[in-house]
Every structure is written in structure tokens, then in C-alpha cells.
């Protein structure tokens, strides 16, 4: 029974840790399906986390923090779109520039405004997204297996966790069952044909990067005022790049992206549980190795287990209208 309880706790941590990865992966899915590669997921998440933590502290409202996080993330997404779509700049260079910009600005402004080493002051409970308990969660908690799954694994997460997983079927429906999704995917595969049909390639790609900015805003906000009690310097810690890895691992499909993010979240949760543990025939595993384990396995999985991942044909290529 203790083993099952430990497994439930790991799975509970898996869900929480996979949320920012999932939101960022879905964000990249919209952008890259339209043909705009986005290395700047990390920067948009970090900018959103700082904005959300700052505004939640000033206003005392988590929802105002969420709006601020989305606003900053969309602004950074539009900067990326302006550089890559309007001016046909290199998409990789633009994304890297946004990452550097976010890292530098959040550290500078955080130190200048709050004088706490680049972080915001700790947020009160009302300025954060609090856990939502499902009906009868406390009553069923003592029931073996079913009660534990219901009260610990399914119940007790904040609203952004449930929104992240609801975004998966919504994204699938938008991309594969709506006219907007059909056009977005067509822009990423054959923009010339879409242009010939009278649909603006530039407008569709801008809509895609805005969707990307909104979801990155949710991801960054979750880190700052859902999972934590304020912004911490460099708190994204490479999650944007792991989300990109999950997106490639899933071959740009939403359900598979969710499963990949859950896998990476499970690796991260397991690594946390293994810290300080003594393993048979191995002894105590160094903390540094445990912290690096999710990243090592990310590289291993991408290198040997997904087969050939083919991106959208027009991905990374600026579109020039033929005259």
C-alpha cells in the first residue's frame, strides 16, 4: 500500500510539473504548424511569469496577474512575428534574441523594482491560483486506491492545471475540425496555394503566433502564481526547450504532445523523489545527476525513439508573395 501511495504522489507531481511543458508545447504547435518556428517559447514564458508575479503582487489578484502574463507574452510573440513574418528575418535568430531579452529584462527589472535578487516578494494566498477540491474529496480520501486517485490525483489542482489539459482536445478540434485549423495547417505546408485561394498567409501566421503568445502566457503565469508564490529569476529553467523537444517527439500532434509532456513530467517528478535516496547496488545517487536526468533522457528519447520527425514543409521559410 505504501508503494501505491508513493506512486500516486509521483503521478500527482507529474501532473503539476507537466502543465507548463504542455501549455508551451501547444503554443509551439500553433506557431510551427503555420510555418513559423519558435525557439522563443522560453523567453515568452519567462516574460509572462515576471509580469504575472509583479501584477499579482501589486494588485493582489491572480486573474490580473494572468492578464498581465498573457499581455507580455503576446507582445513578445508579436515582436517575433514582426521580425519573421513582416520583415522575413531568420526565425531561429529572432527566437534566441527573445530568450536573451527576457532573461536580461526580468533580472534587471526584478532587481530594480524589488531589490530581492531579481525575484518578486512572496505572494499572499489571494494573489495566487488556489487548489480546487472536487466534491467529496475529503470524504473519499480514506478509501484505498479509488479514493486516493480521486482525492489526491484528480482533485486539488488549481484552475490552470485543468485548463491546460482541456486545451488538448480543444486544440485538436481547432486544428483538425475547423476552417481556421485547416487554413493554418495549409499555410505551414503550402503557403503559395493558400495565397492563390485568396487567403492572407501573413494574417494567418500572425494569428498563429498570437495563439502561441496566449498559451505561453498561461504557462508562465502558472509557474509564477500557480505552482510558486511569486517570480524567481530564471524560473523557467529550460522548460521552453523541453516543450520544444516534446513537440518534436510528438511530431506536431496535440494528444501525443500531451503524452510526451507527461513523460517528461514523470521523469522530473521521479528525479525529485530520488534525491537523497540510496539505491541497491548503486548507493546514494548524486543530486547533480538526478537534476540532470530529465534532460539526459530527453536527448536519449529524441535521438533514438521517435523515428523521423518531419516538420511542416514551409516551416522556417519566410513567404514572399509572387507578383
How does this model look, in words?
The structure is a single chain. Helices cover 70% and strands 1% of the residues. By secondary structure, it is mainly alpha-helical. It has a domain at 18-131 and 143-249. It has a two-stranded antiparallel ribbon with strand order 1-2. The relative contact order is 0.20.
Give helix % range: 55-70%
Helix and strand pattern: HHHHHHHHHHHHEEH
Largest beta-sheet characterization = 2 strands, antiparallel
Shape: globular
Question: β content, as a range?
Answer: under 5%
Derived structural class: mainly alpha
Give the number of helices: 13
Compute the gyration radius: what is it?
20 Å
pLDDT averaged over residues:
87
Poorly predicted ranges? none
- Give the neighbour order of strands across the main sheet: 1-2
- Give the oligomeric state: single chain
- First-residue to last-residue Cα separation: 70 Å
Number of strands: 2
Index terms:
1% strand; 323 residues; two-stranded antiparallel sheet; globular; mainly alpha
How would you briefly describe this protein structure?
This protein is an all-alpha fold and 323 residues long. 70% of the residues lie in helices and 1% in strands.
Topology:
Elements: H1 2-33, H2 41-59, H3 62-86, H4 91-114, H5 137-140, H6 146-154, H7 159-177, H8 179-189, H9 191-196, H10 201-227, H11 239-249, H12 254-274, E1 278-279, E2 283-284, H13 287-304
Antiparallel strand pairs: 1-2
Helix pairs in contact: 1-6, 1-7, 1-10, 1-11, 1-12, 2-3, 2-4, 2-10, 2-11, 3-4, 3-10, 7-8, 11-12, 11-13, 12-13
Amino acid at each position: 500500500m505504501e508503494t501505491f501511495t508513493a506512486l500516486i504522489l509521483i503521478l500527482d507531481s507529474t501532473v503539476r510539473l507537466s502543465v507548463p511543458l504542455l501549455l508551451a508545447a501547444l503554443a509551439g504547435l500553433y506557431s510551427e504548424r503555420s510555418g513559423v518556428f519558435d525557439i522563443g517559447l522560453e523567453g515568452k514564458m519567462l516574460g509572462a511569469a515576471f509580469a504575472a508575479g509583479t501584477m499579482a503582487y501589486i494588485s493582489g489578484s491572480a486573474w490580473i496577474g494572468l492578464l498581465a502574463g498573457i499581455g507580455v507574452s503576446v507582445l513578445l510573440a508579436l515582436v517575433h512575428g514582426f521580425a519573421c513574418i513582416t520583415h522575413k528575418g531568420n526565425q531561429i535568430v529572432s527566437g534566441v534574441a527573445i530568450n536573451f531579452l527576457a532573461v536580461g529584462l526580468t533580472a534587471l527589472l526584478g532587481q530594480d523594482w524589488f531589490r530581492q535578487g531579481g525575484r518578486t516578494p512572496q505572494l499572499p494566498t489571494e494573489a495566487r491560483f488556489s487548489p480546487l477540491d472536487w466534491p467529496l474529496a475529503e470524504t473519499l480520501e480514506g478509501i484505498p486506491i479509488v479514493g486516493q486517485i480521486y482525492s489526491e490525483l484528480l482533485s486539488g489542482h488549481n484552475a490552470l492545471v485543468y485548463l491546460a489539459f482541456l486545451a488538448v482536445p480543444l486544440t485538436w478540434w481547432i486544428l483538425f475540425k475547423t476552417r481556421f485549423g485547416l487554413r493554418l495547417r495549409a499555410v505551414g505546408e503550402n503557403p503559395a496555394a493558400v495565397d492563390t485561394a485568396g487567403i492572407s498567409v501573413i494574417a494567418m501566421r500572425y494569428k498563429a503566433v498570437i495563439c502561441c503568445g496566449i498559451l505561453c502566457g498561461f504557462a508562465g503565469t502558472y509557474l509564477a502564481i500557480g505552482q510558486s508564490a511569486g517570480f524567481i529569476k530564471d524560473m523557467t529553467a529550460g522548460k521552453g526547450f523541453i516543450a520544444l523537444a516534446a513537440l518534436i517527439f510528438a511530431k506536431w500532434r496535440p494528444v501525443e504532445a500531451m503524452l510526451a509532456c507527461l513523460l517528461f513530467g514523470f521523469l522530473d517528478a521521479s528525479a525529485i523523489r530520488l534525491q537523497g535516496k540510496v539505491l541497491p547496488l548503486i548507493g546514494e545517487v548524486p543530486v547533480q545527476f538526478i537534476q540532470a536526468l530529465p534532460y539526459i533522457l530527453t536527448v536519449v528519447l529524441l535521438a533514438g525513439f521517435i523515428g523521423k520527425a518531419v516538420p511542416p514543409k514551409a516551416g522556417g521559410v519566410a513567404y514572399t508573395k509572387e507578383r
